[in-house]
Amino acid sequence: MYTAKKSFLFIFSLLLFREMHAQKKLGTETRQQKEKRMAWWAHDRFGMFIHWGLYAQPARHEWVKRWERMSNEQYQPYFDMFNPDMFDPKTWAKQAKAAGMKYAVLTTKHHEGFCLFDSKYTDYKATNTKAKRDLVKEYVDAFRAEGIKIGFYYSLIDWHHPDFTVDGMHPLQPKSEADSDYAKINKGRDWAKYKAYLHNQIRELLTNYGKIDILWLDFSYPNPNGHGKGKNDWGSVELLKMIRQLQPGIIVDNRLDLDEYADGADFATPEQVKPSELQSQYGGLPFETCQTFSGSWGYFRDENSWKSNRELLTLLITAVSKSGNLILNVGPTARGYFDYRAVRALDSLAMWMKYNNQAIYGCTQAPAEFKAPENTLLTYNPVTKKLYLHLMQYNQAALTLPGYAGKIKYAQFLHDNSEIKWQAAGDNGSNLVIKLPQQPNVEIPVIELTLQP
Ligand code: GLC
Question: In this model, does residue 21 exceed pLDDT 80?
Answer without folding.
Answer: no
